[in-house]
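User: Could you walk me through two proteins back to back? I'd like the raw sequence and the structure tokens for each, with a short line separating them so I can tell where one ends and the next begins.

Assistant: Of course. Protein one, sequence then structure:
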Amino acid sequence: MRIALVCLGILGFVSVGIFGYWREVVRAHNDRLQQLDVRLHVNGIRGKSSVTRLLAGVLRDGGYLTVAKTTGSAARVIGPTGEESPISRRGAATINEQIDIVAEHVSGGIEALVIECMAVRPLYQQYSQDFMVKSDITVITNVREDHQEEMGETLEEIADSMSVTIPYGGVLITAEDRPHLRDRLQANAEARGATLVYADPAAVADEDMQGFDYLQFKENVAIGLAVARILGIPRQAAIEGMWKSVPDIGVVRLRTYDIRGRRVLWVPLFAANDRESVIATFENLRAQFPPGAKVIGMLNNRHDRGRRAELFSHMVPDDLSTILDEVITLGAYEETVTATMVERGFPAERIHALGETVRPDLDQMLDTIAQLVDGPEGVLVGMVNIHTEQAEMLMEHFAHLQGEDHREELDEAREPARMPAGVARMQRAATRPAIPQVGRRRAL
């Protein structure tokens, strides 16, 4: 009996200690959030990482000391100068990471926080908004079909799931262009006493897009301009801030490489993995494809993304058969994906396995690509996901071919031209040679 009482006492003492520690962590976290002038929570199906980066650029060049955090293809913290640092994880990513980021990077002088929503399940999204971010402004970039297992099968259900991150009495910004979905978001915002602002891409001029050296969308830029209007940041400062922002690692940058004597345009379209985004991106890019060039799509499937594998196995024959001349399968689900594409009408002789059923080396991959490009020029499009052994091998090869022109995104973030105007002026002043003190009289 005495031992049981002692154990009970120890358990109670430990419980009190844990509760006290948790209470102090929550208090400190809330204090850090309260010091911020602006808190932005970026949600949506497509473009979250890109929009987070653009919004951080808008705020930096708008005069705010800003910290941003992305979750996308490579998790990053972006500091007030625009310089980036990778996020190290000892295990699987969890939404508690948001608290750690605030604790480590929201110091006394920071004025604004832009943070990408990590959560997928609606309950976790709501917890992230209500307790971790407490945003004044939430962005829902768009509503697309993805993560249906957690967020609902229909677009309306997905819109409702993301709406739990709308701030009570705050502002919701969206670039969703379908009226019935925007109306759904509007009703959800009104239920929370929030105002919906539509970021209309028609307000973005063609010249506004000329400062990007990668594929960017007017919808994303429109969101940046909407935030600038709300915060009173001049339009030109917002545009220049977005131009300076470093793109996410999965961004589409078109480059041409020599593959076995063939000129091949490489299109890394891995980050677009829902039907609407893929079709819209192809429509934007087709004008840049060499006339008459054969277009080869690489379906890169991961074991943990079976739903996407199914989606693309339908999309290729249903939506892309007039665009893709050949298809190469990489990674997992090769036999299932191939069978589905053939069943839906895509010719079997135009499908080529180079994934886990073959496990090719780099030379085998390059030989196959060169054989499929039957003319002097071709187009190679990476799709579905980034991380498989075959895709990473090919991307590493292309990065090596870039030689001195290749820049990692962390190096780009340190370029003086990308930093906010104030920081750039300070750096120029620091490197300016001292003015000789000729003829100056000594003080008495």
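----
Protein two, same layout:
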Amino acid sequence: MSPLPAEVTSHPNYFTKQEFEKRVQNGQLLIIYNNKVYKLNKWIKYHPGGECAILNMIGKDATDAINVLHPDYVINNKIKNFYIGEYVLDDSEEIIIHSQTSTNEPELLLTLAKEESISMAFRRLESKIKERGLYNCNYWNYAYETVRYVILITIAWYFVLYGTTTFHYFISSICLGLFWHQLAFTAHDAGHSGITHNLYVDYLIGIFIADFLGGLSIGWWKKNHYVHHIITNHPEHDPDIQHLPFFAISTKFFKNPYSSFYKRTLHFDIFAKFFVSYQHYLYYIIMCFGRFNLYALSINYLYDGANAIFRNLEISCMILFWCWFSYLLSYLPSIPIIIFYILISHMTTMILHVQITLSHFGMSTTEYGPLESFPRRMCRTTMDVDCPWWMDWFHGGLQFQTVHHLFPRIPRHNLRSCQPLVKEFCEEVGIKYHIYGFVKGNGVVLGALRDVANQVKLLKTVANGNSIKYFNHND
């Protein structure tokens, strides 16, 4: 970098690091994109991904996150409306960050030059992926999946309407649960605008799949999931790892962190201490009831979400879901069978909850500050699950979570083709690529949960006021 030009200090369209940070501290919502400064105060409440997604990028270079999370028309047309000047950084302002990790995680040195070189390599990778057409959606994949969906829901209805034994109803409930499990993959694509790449068309597709067929709000999912993609595995900001009182994947949750997403303190109270003490034993059991929590979160979002896009349409489709699901249950012969049916169908979807948490619960929750590049964070906090191609239908393509976190809008059917390119990128820039088999991945998650559980038990044996050394392999 060359020294700062003389006109920078006086020209209002140039921002030094000090001026940029000063304005952020004074309440201006500023981000950096391609060395340009954008002010988002007037836009934040209209952002389709919710306010938290923007707030977690304020004061940072958001170039890579914006590129991978937004379609071209946002980058080419929308963002320019918020441009206010150029960002200039002098050599003297380069920083070295020493990570504060546990004793069993190597100290990491982050330099501005190193993180910029990683970002540049990442942008070359994205260009290569686009050149190979991996952003293009092959709609035949959805045709094949639709056949599978239709078969599952047909079997579910058939055995309810014409079944005569408990076993028939059991088969029906399993098929309905698998129907919801498989639908979640396509709803996920729609939520990321990965089907048509048109925000509103994919939003409507998502409403039909998630709200009408699944009873869950796609709007809530988008608001939650976009934050997860931006600030993955941050104990205070990522809602996907904020599961107290049932789970704590880091000892940081012992300190009652404040959730910026839920806007409340996550209390590590007596209930949390009990459940977290046994979380590695309760993991699969609690996952069986995860869908009921999603219903509550969806309803709460639509009740409070005054700025939710298509709010009335989502509410209508969710009401229709409960109508057709109640109608299906009305054909069952008794109340005990109805309860049995609801529990089995919902417990079947635990497969999905395990698949999703598998890629993050065992990964790092350490914070390296705003200097850390987007691709480094995604690779550090996410792991892939290794499996043969013929098992892709079971994992829905989301076993490639590292690839997906680096490129969220790539259709999931193309993620397998992207994986070799991502591995090459990681080798090139010296970032570890985490990939485990399904069984080994489950072991990594259970090991992380057990480590934190052991810390809770240690707390119980120490007198009040004594200092405790926390250790956790993913801290």
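Confidence is low (pLDDT under 50) at residues 1-10, 91-105.

Let me know if you want the two compared in more detail.
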